[in-house]
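The passage that follows is intended for readers who have already worked through the single-chain material. We present the inputs for a multi-component assembly, then the predicted structure in tokenized form, and finally a short commentary. You are encouraged to pause after the input and sketch how you expect the pieces to fit together before reading on.
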Amino acid sequence: MELSERKKKILRAVVESYIQTAEPVGSKALAELAGVKVSSATIRNELAELTELGYLEQPHTSAGRVPSPQGYRLYVNELMEEQRLSLEETKQINEALHLKMRELDKVIDQAGRMVSQLTNYPAFALTEGARRLTIRRFDLILVDEASFIAVVMTDSSVVKNKLFRLPAQLSEPQLQLLTTLLNTAFVGKTLDQLTPELMRVAEHAAGSSYGLISLVVSFAMEVLDALESGAVYTAGTSHILDHPEYQDVGKAQKLMSYLTEDRSLAQALALPALEGDDTKILIGPENVADELKDTSVVLASYDIGDGMKGVIGVVGPTRMDYAKVAAKLSYVADGLSKLFGQPELPPGTPEKEE
Amino acid sequence: MELSERKKKILRAVVESYIQTAEPVGSKALAELAGVKVSSATIRNELAELTELGYLEQPHTSAGRVPSPQGYRLYVNELMEEQRLSLEETKQINEALHLKMRELDKVIDQAGRMVSQLTNYPAFALTEGARRLTIRRFDLILVDEASFIAVVMTDSSVVKNKLFRLPAQLSEPQLQLLTTLLNTAFVGKTLDQLTPELMRVAEHAAGSSYGLISLVVSFAMEVLDALESGAVYTAGTSHILDHPEYQDVGKAQKLMSYLTEDRSLAQALALPALEGDDTKILIGPENVADELKDTSVVLASYDIGDGMKGVIGVVGPTRMDYAKVAAKLSYVADGLSKLFGQPELPPGTPEKEE
DNA sequence: ATTAGCACTCAGGAATGATGAGTGCTAAAC
DNA sequence: GTTTAGCACTCATCATTCCTGAGTGCTAAT
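Having made your guess, compare it with the prediction:
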């Protein structure tokens, strides 16, 4: 059954007032708030029906009304107006995104922090490494006679490095040899193709080199593994305490440790976002994770390139400013997609003067 | 005036009981707890004197006693027994330290998390980049015809990389040229020696290369700057809520946002640790920062090599298990120092089998 | 269909009182 | 002189009670 126009107006007023004040909304207040010229008594009748229909709830008999998850859902789907970001806000976001160094994981992490700061809710960001990755290239750089740095680049253009210190001398030509060896034997292999046998063979070809091949390849494997299993970053968990629904320390603590510690689950929660649309809103019980049954999650996905995706999201009480959060989040997600997809240069212009 | 042996015993018992239970300690309980065979009345007299002397405090007339900051100080300086870590604990720490990839900042961050988890207090870790750094070497790696990765290594052997995408084609020889150019012109220069003029000159020598020199050098400058100004990592802030002194959400929130947001101050607080000994304990009002006036901080410093130091620390209520925390913290700090100072290999043995 | 009016409900805060842990002091005991 | 038993006193904490006011649902009039 479709709700009457008036009921919608009232529902919307309830949601928006409650989002702002966190106080149950009464009929009298609504008579003024909602753009409806009727008395509080009429509103009461309407409220009673909306409650009947499951869109509103009453904390106790003599209190005002509060939106139910179903009410929020309707609000989000039909009643909510798309929020436009102010020019200043977009500017701020853009700057923050471009300022940061472009190391994949740093950017993601930073984006999470930014979103949290922007919305005043805890935020998380993660990359889903759905794909099977391979190493595209090895480089070994001599640091001094007893140490070198291995730089590996994956076919997703992520670069990682590690410093190795040796108990013995090493020369530039030796390192060259190792490099070519690594590049011929291990490039283009997926994680499970990097077998111990393969390593033994290469080790043999390298001759007396202290098992360096294995060391570097192990490092490469760690890198692949880390990337394929993705990463989760959370930021701004302390914002939980900003909201009156978490004045109860016990509750706050539960949610907080779920967000900071339970990384595997934090990941699981974001899966819904990877299928389907850009932004997704999960309200209270719509969440799979028990710990989130009375919180809402707003998610936006972004492209990393190479068909890989990531998710950035915000967690908060069901009484969340969905319009604002969704707008900001999807703006940031878009920004991320662009950042990963576009060329660096406005050429010729030095980026920064300092 | 030196305290009598009995007073010391009593003070110690008060501190340790209060650390455990967070409840004011009464004379009766102490009569049993402290290894002193006197009645509660005698204890009461002693307590009164200890209070007089400023080592204890009384929350209100009919409550037991609680250690004052001065009391904790005495406890830490004279009464506390050095805690030995169990074999299991040391093993756990060692493993965790060695497991992680050896990228400087990752290790530090991880160490912070570890400490927090180990102690159940929020922890932070930071590196102090006191020194003026220079770039030791540039490498440019071609990714595809329109992008390359710049790898810069500082003289402190930190390696950072960044992907550059170009609006135009680029060839391997061009890149080679750029690389040598970069390495001859900019290696060994400190941040303020990397002047715009220098960049212009090099740019000119490079010919038509879209201002690539500037781009890469700007990146290098960012890296130097970031390293010199150090970095702060905080972890486990949610542990604040574990402790009854922060049942008051307002308090918890203040401390938490101080720890997570106020990075400059978090850095300032750690300066004391860089001078002097290995471990340092700051109790309540001994802290400079206002926000920490009723918390304690335990700090340990570690060597990164090249004369550079870092600090790792733990924040908690003054009622903190100083003995345990100090032991764990300094063990981790030592581990870090070793990690940075020692060669990688037990050679020949592949580290991991997976 | 709307509204005024009224009785009713119930959370939240203030006021009150009982409880008990713990103290300080005094006077006796060692 | 030190220790201890005893006792009056203090004060946070908790439970109880009472009051107030916001907000409701229902009825009857418009």
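Commentary: Chain A touches chain B through 60 residues (CB under 8 Å). Residues 48 and 90 of chain A are 42 Å apart (CA to CA). How closely did your sketch match?
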